[in-house]
Amino acid sequence: MQHFYIDREIVPGEQIGLSGDDHNHIKNVLRMKRGEKVVINDTKGISHICALAGFGEGCSYFDEEESFRCETELPAKTVLYQGIPKKDKMDLIIEKAVELGCSRIVPVMTKRVIVKIEDDRKEARKLERWNAISKSAAMQSGRGVIPVIDRVMSFGQALEDCKKLDKVLIPYEESESIGCTMEGSREVIKGLSGAKSIGIFIGPEGGFEASEVEEAMKAGAIPVSLGKRILRTETAGLAALSIIMFATEP
User: Label partner for 106 (CA 20 to 30 A): which of 45, 65, 92, 150?
Assistant: First the structure.
């Protein structure tokens, strides 16, 4: 069934109206008929099976029939702190990170980021597109929530933001130089199973500077290795999220 989202709690048995792009998609793209069912997810992590009751002016109306706790979310809220890559790589990263269960994505300006966001209007346009990609990926993968793409943060702001999380990892291609082995990384991953929230820092093209890794470690981030190969920025975060998914999902 198709998945849709509403920005409030749904009361069992109520009639729900979906407007805007959702209404257009339901009526003109899916061409749904009365009685056909969808899943509508609310802000409490509850999924509701709803039947189309009919169309109004700019709105599709659904009758709520049954509800259940969404089971597609990871047990740990996972935040991806992504160094902003060049061109449209961020689009791919967002789409796949959402499919893999990421809860929130924070674009980060690190020392080696080449892309420059010159003003608030350009940032707002990027955020609008990125959040639209997140919504589309959430619908496609049956997510219970739409992960938020935050405003761009500096590296220092991201380190401050991550302090509220239970565990924070920073995959680093030079991890062995600071005493982080594959065996040690496996132990770190095993220790994620009881965490309620996890952060992952991924560098842009060119990775992190050594001084940034030192700053992250001082803020509580744990360096880990993702293997003997050097991964592109658009691959590293997805590899880390895949590992976390398998380590934490029951």
Answer: 45
